[in-house]
Amino acid sequence: MELRFTEEQEMMRKMVRDFAQEQIAPMVAEMEETDRFPKEIIKQMGDLGLLGIPISEEYGGSDMDFTSYIIAIHELSKVSATVGVILSVHTSVGTNPILYFGTEEQKQKYVPKLATGEYLGAFAITEPGAGSDAASIRTSAVKDGDHYVINGSKIFITNAGEADTYIVSAKTDPSAGVKGISVFIVEKDTPGFSVGKKEHKMGLHGSNTCELIFEDVRVPVSNLLGEEGEGFKILMSNLDVGRIGIAAQSLGIAEAALESAIGYAKERQQFGKPIGMQQGLGFKLADMATKVEAAKLLVYRAAALRQKGLPCGQEASMAKLFASRAAMEVATEAIQVFGGYGYTKDYPVERYFRDAKICEIYEGTSEIQRIVISKHLLRD
Ligand code: CAA
Asked: Which residues belong to any copy of the Acyl-CoA dehydrogenase/oxidase C-terminal domain (predicted)?
C-alpha cells in the first residue's frame, strides 16, 4: 500500500500549512500565556471553508473528501494542537451527528451555519460520574408536551462557552440502560442552560474546556436527534469518526516534535560535532521518526476507510491508540534531545509534551480504545 495523496488533497495541505504558519503561529505564545480562545482564527477558518471541509455544498460545506479534513487537522496541529482540537470537535462530533442522523429540517436549520462558521459546534456526553462509562450518564430529559425538559450537568466539554450548538446526551428512560439514552441539539441561548467552571489545563491552552449546567432546559421535540433511545449508537458511531480526528491531532504533535528535535540535533554542537551525529541521539531520532511514520499510516488508513464509507471503528481506535502514544513518546524524547533547554518555555517541545498527554485521554482513553479494539477482534 502506497500513501499517495491526490492533487486536491495536496493543495489542501499547502493551504492549511501556509495559513497555520502565517496566521496561527504568531498567536501561539499569546494563547499559551493567556489561555484565550482564538476567536479570530476560527472566524478566518470559517471564511476559508475549513469548518465544513467534508460537508457537501448543499449544506454549505466545502464538499471535499474526508482525507482532506484529516489533512487539515494534522497540519493545524503541527502548529497548534489547540486549533486542531477545536476543528475536530466542531466537525466530527459537533456537526456530523446532525448531518448523519438529523431530519432534513434539522440539517437545513443547523448544518449550513456550522459548515460556514457562523456557528461553532460542541459535543456534551461526559459527566462527573460518567467518563469512560459513557452509558452511565444521569442527565435526564423528560417529555412535556412538545418539549423535553433537560436537567443535569456535563463536564470537560470542549468548545464550551464559544459554541452555538451542543449535541447533548440525556436519559429519556432511566430504566432502559443504553437503550434509554437520547441525543438533543441544544442552542446556547436556551433558558436554563449555562456554562459553568472553565478548567485550567496542563496543555491545549486557548481551547475552552468547561462544565455545562442544565436547569429545566426546555428543548423542542424537533431538536431530538434520531429516535428516542437511539442516542448511544449515534454517540458511539460519531466517536468512531471523531477518534480519527484526534489521531490526526496526535500525529501533528508528534511530527512537530520530531521536526524540532531534528533541527536542534543538527545545530547543537557538543564534543566537537552536532549532537545528532552522536549515535545515542541519532538512534533516538530514528526511533522517533519510525513511530511518526507508523502513526501516519494508521491515521490515513482509517481516514481512507471512512472516506469509502467502510466500517472504521476498529481502525480509528487503533490509529488513536497508537498515534497518541507516539505523540507522547516522541514529545518526551524531543525534550531529551534539547536537554535543559527542552525543559524551558524558550522552545516549543515542552508544549508538545503537555498537549500530547490529553490525546491519550479524551475521546476515549487508551484503555477504552483497547476495549473497542478487542471487542472487534472477538466479535469478528
Ligand atoms: N457504533 C454503533 N453502535 C455502537 C458502537 C459503535 N461504535 N459501539 C457500541 N454500540 C452499540 C452496541 O452495539 C450496543 O447495542 P446493542 O445492545 O443493540 O448491540 C450498545 O451500543 C452498547 O454497546 P456496549 O455494550 O459496547 O457499551 P458499553 O456500555 O460497554 O460502552 C464503550 C462501550 C466503548 C466503553 C463506551 O462507553 C465508550 O466509548 N466510552 C468512552 C467514552 C468517550 O469516548 N468519551 C469521549 C467524550 S467526548 C470528547 O472527549 C471530545 C473532546 O473533548 C475532544
From this structure: 229-378
Positions marked catalytic: 363
CATH architecture of 7-120: Orthogonal Bundle (1.10)
CA distance 336 to 355: 17
Secondary structure E strands in the chain = 121-124, 140-144, 147-158, 165-171, 181-187, 193-198, 209-220, 224-225, 269-270, 273-274
Q: Who lines ligand 1 at CB under 6 A?
A: 85, 89, 123, 125-126, 132-135, 158, 178, 232-233, 236-237, 239-240, 313, 362-364, 368, 371-372
Going by CA atoms, what residue is nearest to atom 4 of ligand 1? 233
Q: What is the mean pLDDT of each run of 10 residues along the chain (380 residues)?
A: 86 98 98 97 98 97 97 98 98 97 98 98 97 97 98 98 98 96 98 98 98 98 97 96 97 98 98 97 98 98 96 97 98 98 97 98 98 94
Nearest ligand 1 atom, CA 361: 50
Please give the CATH architecture assigned to the domain spanning 232-378: Up-down Bundle (1.20)
| Its pTM surpasses 0.95 | yes
Span from the CA of 169 to the centroid of ligand 1 (angstroms): 12
**CATH superfamily of domain region 122-231:** Butyryl-CoA Dehydrogenase, subunit A, domain 2 (2.40.110.10)
